Amino acid sequence: MPGYQARTVHFLLLTICLTVTGCSGSIDDAPEVAAVTGTVEFNGKPLEEGTIVFHPTSGRSASGMIKGGKIVEVTTTTKGDGAPVGDNKVTIFSTKPDPKDLSGMGTISLIPEKYNDIKKSGLNAMIKGNEENTVTFDLKK
Questions:
Q1: Under DSSP, is residue 60 helix (H, G, I), strand (E, B) or coil?
Q2: Cα–Cα distance, 123 to 137 (Å, whole number)
Q3: Distance, CA of 67 to chain centre
Q4: Mean pLDDT of successive 10-residue segments in the chain (141 residues)?
């Protein structure tokens, strides 16, 4: 598996593990979160499926799913509770299996890989407490 694909798979697994088990501590010290919905487009069309991750300046990250261009089930601690309040950097992943990879583990990114990298994505979201937050991302090639 090429290096970038291995990193993508490992990052996705890490994100899932952190979402399921939490980073550390108890729910009592969980961050303040708020509901998040919105849309993700790629070159002006809804991104059919993927994963979105909200990275606050400190503390636990949140992840959600992208289905038919809509952001759903953003979770920090419990399913659908939302993303951490405050400024968040955002990464987005959308992959499909690589038919050339005989191991069945390889993937092909459906969007430019810069959107997978917290340092390169250029995506941000300001999440405000006690309200429904709507975010919109239009990814470009």
A1: coil
A2: 8
A3: 12
A4: 50 51 53 96 97 97 98 96 98 94 88 97 97 96 91
Single-letter residue type at 63: S
Dihedral (CA of 18, 60, 31, 131) sign: negative
* Residue 94 in tokens: 């959308």
Cα–Cα distance for residue pair 60/18, rounded to 1 Å: 8
Does the reported pTM lie above 0.85?
A: no
Q: Which residues does 57 contact at the CB level (< 8 Å), separation at least 6?
A: 86, 87
CA proximity to 112, closest of 141, 74, 138? 141
Query: Quick one: tokens of 46?
Result: 């809804």
For 73, the enclosing helix (H) or strand (E) is: strand 70-75
Query: Is residue 117 exposed (0-12), middle (13-18) or buried (19+ Cβ within 10 Å)?
Result: middle
What pairing do the DSSP bridges indicate for beta strands 62-67 and 70-75? antiparallel
- Specify which residues 15 forms β-bridges with: none
Tokens coding 61:
């990250």
CA distance 39 to 45: 10
